[in-house]
Amino acid sequence: MAETTTLLIEIGALLLGMGLLGRIAGRAGVSPIPLYLLAGLAFGQGGLLPLSASEEFFEVGSEVGVILLLVMLGLEYSAGELLTSIRRSALAGLLDALLNALPGAALALLLGWGPVAAVALAGVTWVSSSGVIAKVLRDLGRLNNRETPVVLSILVIEDLAMAFYLPLLSALVVGAGLAEGARTMAIAVSAALVILFAALKYGRVISTLFSPRQREALLLGVLGLTMLVAGVAEQVNVSAAVGAFLVGIAISGPVAEHASELLTPLRDVFAAVFFVFFGLQTDPAEIGPVLLPALALAIITIATKLLTGYLAARRAGIGEPGRWRTGLALAPRGEFSVVIAGLAVSAGIEPTLAPLVTTYVLITVVTGPLLARLPESPRFRAALRRRMLSRDRGAVPPRR
Amino acid sequence: MAVRIEQVDLPGIGVRHDVLTETGRRVSVLTHRSGERTLAVFEVDDPDSCRDPVTLTDDEAEALAELLGASVMLGQLSALREAAGVYTEQIVIAADSPFVDRRLGDTRARTRTGASIVALLRDGSVVPSPGPETRLQAGDNVVAVGTRTGLDSLTRIIADGAN
């Protein structure tokens, strides 16, 4: 068979399989991300049926997937929303970073993986999946709830923090000595700041490049600009993902709305390819040894997210049940954790990182949405009511 | 009358407006970026959580708003009746009225009688604050506010275009 023919057959079969998996996930009401990762595991190195011809396609496709994930994330937010979120929830964001990055970093150091891997794993455990969480909140009809802005502000701050974290990580991963590392990092962070400033200040000008009415021209134009900026950002070690995110923030108004409508199907295809590719790179045989650490990490970081959300909601004046809803909703990790791990793995800093993160994301992305439903269960409500009652009783001064 | 409305931005999703009622309840309207909107009422025993969010189409939201607006307006009109010397009256446009299919402005109601036409009731719905270009139809119920004499002469004008 000619190579292109094999390529078509492999890609076709895999995409079709992913389509069916996506349908199953939709039926079961869960995120398809874990299923895509599993599909990748099954077909990758050491899997059931290694692919031969299409590896390169999936590699390029996954690169495009990351860029599309991030540009869409940027399109979701306007510059004003970013600023108000930071002003209002900076403290919650800081608490979130501390409580959730530390367990990851600690585990990496415990496993003797060195400081760079520690920074990478810290990022993996820090960021929640805004995509999964937004979907869960919508599905559970909680968008009108009073605690929802607390959840969303934390997500916004995490996403924005990625604009600084990712270039920092890429600089670290490139390594090259302390002085050289500091230099690349300085370049990376200042480049991110410059692009962010340009996006905030001249976003409207950039948007006038495009017309929301011409679909084809808009699609090509936004896609082109995104990939161009992503490429240039990668060139100066800012990481393509951050370039794409900043392009998304710079585009605003009706152009942003129409562009995100047009890009969504593309994003869905290539993001799925990205998850499969991450799975492809992981050898399923390596999952066994990391299962326990991954499980422990998942349990600890679900608890720290719960605490983060609980405290943030309490600060915002939300009642007891709402605080639990906030904390439990924040639990799932997802696309961003995989992006971070992908960055670290492709630089070859720690081969065991990939199976660990795959397992970790599999656990949290499946249990997260289930945990988010917990506050609705009658048993949970009853337990909470008892807790609140006993606390109220405790507050009453004892009778003489 | 002061009503407490809270506005909250939901980054990436839209804007939420809550109306806090005197009875201590919270009614919330979430306007999504996509233009869709959801109406929800907050629970009593868990004041941060909403119950049964309802998604409304443009038409449904408009119909609901008109319904609320009309009921408020009719309430205010009946309250006016108690004010000294000012009355509200509903005048039906008869089929033989000279103003059928003519513009409201042609009646020159306010200049000639001092009475104001504040609404039209037509086919069971309300046209609030009709403008001078609004066309009158046979069977329209004109809601007018004015003094006794003003309303009487308005009734005559509408009936036969007198004076």
From TrEMBL, chain A:
Residues spanning the membrane: 6-26, 33-51, 57-78, 117-137, 149-179, 185-205, 217-233, 239-256, 263-281, 287-307
Keywords, in A-Z order: Membrane, Transmembrane, Transmembrane helix, Transport
Listed Gene3D superfamilies: 1.20.1530.20
Domain Cation/H+ exchanger transmembrane: 20-372
Compartment(s): Membrane
Pfam families linked: Na_H_Exchanger (PF00999)
InterPro entries for this protein: Cation/H_exchanger_TM, Na+/solute_symporter_sf
An example molecular function term from Gene Ontology annotations: antiporter activity
UniProt record, GO biological process: proton transmembrane transport
Chief localisation class: membrane
GO cellular component, one term: membrane
Keyword Disulfide bond: no
Membrane-related topology note: Multi-pass membrane protein
Protein family according to the UniProt entry: Belongs to the monovalent cation:proton antiporter 2 (CPA2) transporter (TC 2.A.37) family.
Protein's name according to its UniProt entry: CPA2 family monovalent cation:H+ antiporter-2
From TrEMBL, chain B:
Matching PROSITE patterns: RCK_C
Region forming the signal peptide: none
InterPro entries: AAE_transporter, KhtT, KhtT-like_N, RCK_C, RCK_C_sf
GO BP: any one term: potassium ion transport
GO molecular function, one term: monoatomic cation transmembrane transporter activity
One Pfam family cited in the UniProt record for this chain: TrkA_C
Residues annotated as domain RCK C-terminal: 75-160
Listed PANTHER family: K(+)_H(+) ANTIPORTER SUBUNIT KHTT
Protein name: TrkA domain protein
Lineage of origin: Bacteria, Bacillati, Actinomycetota, Actinomycetes, Jiangellales
